[in-house]
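Researcher:
Attend to token order:
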Amino acid sequence: MTEALSDDDIAYAGVAGQRALLRSGAVTSVRLLEIAHARIARYDRELNAFRTLFESARAEAQAADAALAAGDDRPLLGVPVAVKDYVAVAGHAPSQGTASPEPPAIEDAEVVRRLRAAGAVVVGATNLPELALWPFTESETFGVTRNPWDPSRTPGGSSGGSAAAVASGMVAAALGSDGGGSIRIPAACCGLVGLKPTRDLVSLAPVHEHWYGLSVAGCLTRTVADTVTVLNVLQDSTLEITEPPPMRIAWSLKPMLPAPVRPEVKRAVHDVVRRLDALGHTVVRADPSFDGLVESFLVRYATGTAQDLAQLADPSATELRTRAVAMLGRRLRGRALVRARRLGDTAAARLSRVPGGAAVLVTPTIPAPAPPAESLRGLRTLLLAGRRATFTSPWNVTGQPALSVPAGFSQEGLPLAVQLIGPPGSDALLLSLAAQLEQGPPPRPAL
């Protein structure tokens, strides 16, 4: 019964659970916001998920309660959410993880506008590494963001603040962006669902393109159904979860860049493969061809960073490793960038047909459970960070949807994950397959 629900139960109810509580009158939006603020006050000093909280949230919650009382049934009405401190929020100066004194945004980015139009209560902006560059969330300006499952570990990046906020029950969902794994890597590190949608499914407006086509916008949630609800707010078509028919599914442990895959990660992939076989799917091993993908990704990543850095109010207010990537990017413009895009187009055409004649490809999301925080520093980051994105970054080049879903835990109690990849436009299929794999309520970290 709802009367027996604790504040923890309500916090971890997710989007669907909180929507049901709001509509039944068991809780108000103002109360949900109070629970969110209490959890932030209790846990965020250690986790450092949020850069800032928005004073406007209470008025939004009060307006949501009035709308609920009037029978309004918008999909996120009254639900507390967070946004990555990379997107424009009217009146707020997004830091992009830097110390640059950026001006306040004049209006909301399209994804934020859609959240508000759906009735969401936007609690605050979450931390990221400088310019969303890294598969961890640490910066000299805003400090180290930590994993709720083990604060000595990273929550991943670059949407690590968003992942930590959702995994710790501070909010039901959070916006992220993914230019090389920045939604999927935090989802894997924190035991969440994280979809990199098909390129252009979710608008980046007011930006037309980011990192020369690598980046997309999306969200992090605790369940597949919650991801579907939020994504249906963020884009124009309607994604639906259906019972997937028996299909041919390929699996691979082949990384794009050399990286050792930990035994527990391999076991997680094998366990999922066995479950898919038991569900009636035909499972085959088939490795993708990554020809041209490394060059295409690195050139677009570096030149995109150079472009982002140049647009800051004070480009010098950044870390040396950030400026080093941008310096490389400035040298790779022109012919190198044209070639990189051509290589990406060729790879996209080839990999839009999943290896092995399959409908879906299963791989690890990351080669190891969440690494220790602060384990990559300085220019060493440039040499080693790519290993953490070795399974995720290829699909940014091709633009295909790729979904990270929880797949158990390591012996240390850290989340494990697998990645589902499909041809362009197969977002609904991936989500439906993930729903078939999902087993019961998602576990909670022992905060």
In short: The two ends are 25 Å apart (CA to CA).
